[in-house]
Amino acid sequence: MRGSHAVAELHDTALPGSGIRREWQRFTPGQRLARFAVYFFVVAAFVLSLGTVEVIPEFLWDAPAQMQDLLVRMWPPDYAHYPASVHDALVETLHIATLGTVLAVVLAVPLGLLAAHNVTPSHTVNTLAKLALVTSRSVNSLVWALLFIAVFGPGALAGTLAIAFRSIGFVGKLLGEALEEAQPGPIEALKASGTPWPSLLVFGYWPQVKPAFWALVLLRWDINVRESAVLGLVGAGGIGVALNTAMNLFQWDRVAVVLLAIFVVVIVAEVVVTWVRGRIL
Hints:
Number of strands: 2
Shape: extended
Helix content: over 70%
Low-confidence stretches: 1-10
Strand order of the largest sheet: 1-2
Distance between the termini: 43 Å
Radius of gyration: 27 Å
Strand content: under 5%
Largest sheet: 2 strands, antiparallel
CATH topology of the largest domain: MetI-like fold
CATH superfamily of the largest domain: MetI-like
Number of domains: 2
Order of helices and strands: EEHHHHHHHHHH
């Protein structure tokens, strides 16, 4: 008997004076050994990690009191601080997220086309394109921001480029996978009629990948709004600069205003993305 998760194994067991009895077991010996090995390594990794973290018990027990004291300092929020310092930084954050997403799409589409084997039938080109996409995804946006700050200096330009280069791997990888999952029937029909390659992309592949493409672009923009809110902590512009300044000056009532503004923007971005997806998909 074969199931979706395990394979039952049939054993013959001899009983005194009654012949043979068949006994079913859910897992084979090899499967039981593999399950035990997975559980063992998970527990071992947890124990080793717990020992490496080096938690200081005094700080751990004192954490609730420190959190309560921090919340008391943050209340009530200094809403008068919003027009002077928070609003412009918040708008800049949205600009960073939007421009970074647009730039990422422009750069990711060619890489996605090169990474899809059915669009670009060259193993070498596919491998190089996928390597570029993996490189983009493997570097965190804060690290990208630090690199671009070293090149262009602190400001919104470094944040925009950090968001863009972080997003290229996400958009390009998913676009390439959507292209590879396209139905070959319409593509072969267009090829048989002598359709040139640009028209093949527009009329063969694009109608099939359009829903997935717009969905991943909207999702990436939503993610970028969240990520761009913290880039200012390393000097890459946006509302993170206002947050970092307020924290360094121990102005916790202003920190509460910044955090509240970030929370509201994230919720609004989620609502906008959901509404747009319902309209265009």
